[in-house]
């Protein structure tokens, strides 16, 4: 760990412990609410929900209810941030920073949107992308059940500002990590400008700190929000670090011999504020677990690190739990890889699992996009943390076949994000022409906020935002020119956009019932 200042650590510790403390009483309330609902209130809750219940999933003896799509909006692919660069990829990860209900029944707040590594095609000028996150205001009034459809778009996102991330005195880069900077832990670096490479995919907001997960390491970084500076780095067990011939090698241009598959790193990151456990989910299996093919890579890994609340927050938590997650697969046996993770209860998570079809892909017809559920209790999965499986020579599922003695956690369908009747409320489709009403291929992020309804305390808004891969005809991105240190803006036209048009960022709001879940008060929300 490198801490820039002890003052910062103290501030973060205070914030983190405040978050945990705020969570605790609510956590205890959860137990009482759960007891009550097993007697009388369960029936009333079910009957209130029945008018707009579009699907129920039973898990851990509880009923999770999907009430359907209530809001939809977009961010134009032509928008630029305060650095003049295209706003794209922003649905890679999201985190609410504030949220409240107004007397007129509308909701407003702010949301942080975090893009990944920038535009993929082109030279250094458009790929030497500095990792960042954007803060937006949000506002919506949920769609009335009696509303005439297709309704007009009712989810408004307004740009406020951008935070660039820094490692030491340098910005990070989206370029491929073709070098290793030795240290504890070794860091992925691009030889082009000797900057640390970030392909950011997960985001947790803890007041003055952002916790960010990436695909190159795959690492987890703690970033001071005031400065954008990384102050601590968490590396996963050796089994997950990409290695070639026993040596760490972070390139994502080809697969390692063991460790995370290229571009299949920590897509999912979430913090359980009731107990300080930080959870990360790989997009699909490591190479030794069958990661090289869609037909063998369904056994992913979910890792849980515990912070010691009596010690300063130092991002050196202890790996306490690790499960094999059996991702869903198509009829042909192709894995529906995971793009996000969000805690919704004690050991219960939403997992965003999906196909790659829709706008952004060459196949329009989508067949699977789910905010699904996974539980570390329901299936009694095997905890492999600290076992031989944390070493690369001991795969849990060589060639995609689970070894004997390991029980995986299974993914259960919950919110169907491509449901025709829900998308059509806003004139959207899950098939047909490649236009702006076709669902985006890459839905990649989840966030939750309580609907604030005393009658339905378990009801939440579920936010889902797409990653448009910076597919635009009006592309603008800055990179360093020949390592001079100066960032120069360059224009690009994405080839997919030349064929099908620019791809807006799509933002969806669903309403769901998460039985017994009590999201801690906003501090720092999630
Ligand atoms: C990483 O592996 C790639 C592909 O084998 C190779 O070209 C590259 O030189 C290696 N990088 C390092 C730092 O060893
Ligand atoms: C960067 O370096 C390349 C190759 O040396 C050169 O062709 C190019 O003109 C340089 N660009 C700038 C902006 O200095
Ligand atoms: C910082 O970036 C410059 C190029 O902008 C590079 O020459 C230098 O080596 C980098 N230093 C570190 C410590 O990353």
Structural write-up:
This protein is globular. 11% of the residues lie in helices and 36% in strands. It contains 4 helices and 31 strands. The strands form 9 sheets. Strands 1-2-31-28-27 form a 5-stranded antiparallel beta sheet, with no helix packed on it. A 5-stranded mixed beta sheet has the order 18-19-20-21-25, with no helix packed on it. The protein is mainly β and 526 residues long. The chain has one domain. One 2-acetamido-2-deoxy-beta-D-glucopyranose binds next to loops. This is Phytase-like domain-containing protein. It comes from Jaminaea rosea. Residues 35-51 have a biased composition (Low complexity). Residues 186-470 form the Phytase-like domain.
Q: What can be said about this structure in brief?
A:
The protein is mainly beta and 526 residues long. It has one domain.
Structural class: mainly beta
Report Rg. 22 Å
Please report the number of helical segments. Answer: 4
Gross morphology: globular
Helix content, binned percent = 10-25%
What attributes characterize this protein structure?
binds 2-acetamido-2-deoxy-beta-D-glucopyranose; 11% helix; disordered N terminus; 5-stranded antiparallel beta sheet; Phytase-like domain-containing protein; mainly beta; Phytase-like_dom; 36% strand; disordered C terminus; single chain; 5-stranded mixed beta sheet; 526 residues
Describe the SSE topology.
Layout: H1 6-50, E1 55-59, E2 62-75, E3 93-101, E4 107-114, H2 124-127, E5 132-140, E6 155-164, E7 166-167, E8 170-171, E9 179-181, E10 187-190, E11 195-196, E12 200-206, E13 209-214, E14 220-224, E15 230-234, E16 243-244, E17 247-248, E18 266-272, E19 277-282, E20 299-306, E21 318-326, E22 338-345, E23 348-354, E24 369-375, E25 409-410, E26 412-416, H3 420-423, E27 443-450, E28 459-466, E29 475-480, E30 487-492, H4 495-500, E31 505-513
The structure holds 2-acetamido-2-deoxy-beta-D-glucopyranose (3 copies).
């Amino acid at each position: 760990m490198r801490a820039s200042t002890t003052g910062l650590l103290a501030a973060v510790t205070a914030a983190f412990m405040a978050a945990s403390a705020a969570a605790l009483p609510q956590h205890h309330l959860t137990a009482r609410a759960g007891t009550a609902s097993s007697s009388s209130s369960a029936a009333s809750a079910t009957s209130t929900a029945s008018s707009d219940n579009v699907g129920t999933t039973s898990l851990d003896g509880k009923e999770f209810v999907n009430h359907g799509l209530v809001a939809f909006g977009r961010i134009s692919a032509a928008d630029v941030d305060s650095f003049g660069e295209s706003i794209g990829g922003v649905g890679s990860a999201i985190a609410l920073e504030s949220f409240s209900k107004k007397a007129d029944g509308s909701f407003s707040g702010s949301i942080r949107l975090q893009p990944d590594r920038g535009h993929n095609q082109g030279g250094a000028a458009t790929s030497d992308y500095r990792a960042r996150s954007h803060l937006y205001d949000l506002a919506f009034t949920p769609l009335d059940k009696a509303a005439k459809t297709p309704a007009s778009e009712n989810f408004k996102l307004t740009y406020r500002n951008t935070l660039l991330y820094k490692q030491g005195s340098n910005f990070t880069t989206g370029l491929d990590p073709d070098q290793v900077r030795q240290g504890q832990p070794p860091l992925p670096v691009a030889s082009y400008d000797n900057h640390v490479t970030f392909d950011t995919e997960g985001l947790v907001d803890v007041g003055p700190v952002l916790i960010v997960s990436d695909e190159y390491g795959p690492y987890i970084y703690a970033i001071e929000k005031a400065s954008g500076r990384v102050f601590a780095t968490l590396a996963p067990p050796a089994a997950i670090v990409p290695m070639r011939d026993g040596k760490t090698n972070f390139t994502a241009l080809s697969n390692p011999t063991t460790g995370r598959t290229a571009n299949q790193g920590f897509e999912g990151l979430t913090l359980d504020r009731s107990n300080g456990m930080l959870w990360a989910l790989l997009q699909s299996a490591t190479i030794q677990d069958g990661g090289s093919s869609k037909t063998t890579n369904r056994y992913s890994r979910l890792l849980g690190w515990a912070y010691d609340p009596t010690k300063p927050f130092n991002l050196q938590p202890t790996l306490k739990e690790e499960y094999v997650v059996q991702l869903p697969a198509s009829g042909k046996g192709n894995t529906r890889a995971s793009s996000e993770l969000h805690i919704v209860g004690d050991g219960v998570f939403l997992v965003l699992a999906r196909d790659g079809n829709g706008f952004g892909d060459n196949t329009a017809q989508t067949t699977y996009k789910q905010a699904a559920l996974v539980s570390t209790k329901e299936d009694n999965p095997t905890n492999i943390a600290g076992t031989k499986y944390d070493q690369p020579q001991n795969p849990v599922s060589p060639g995609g076949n689970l070894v004997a003695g390991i029980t995986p956690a299974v993914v259960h369908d919950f919110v169907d994000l491509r449901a025709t009747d829900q998308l059509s409320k806003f004139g959207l489709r899950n098939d047909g022409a490649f236009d702006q009403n076709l669902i985006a291929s890459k839905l990649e992020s989840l966030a939750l906020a309580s609907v604030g309804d005393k009658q339905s305390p378990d009801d939440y808004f579920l936010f889902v935002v797409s990653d448009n891969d910076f597919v635009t005809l009006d592309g603008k991105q800055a990179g360093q020119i020949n390592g001079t240190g100066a960032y120069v803006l360059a224009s690009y036209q994405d080839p997919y956009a030349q064929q099908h048009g620019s791809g807006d960022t799509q933002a969806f709001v669903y309403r769901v019932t998460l039985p017994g879940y009590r999201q801690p008060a906003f501090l720092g929300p999630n």
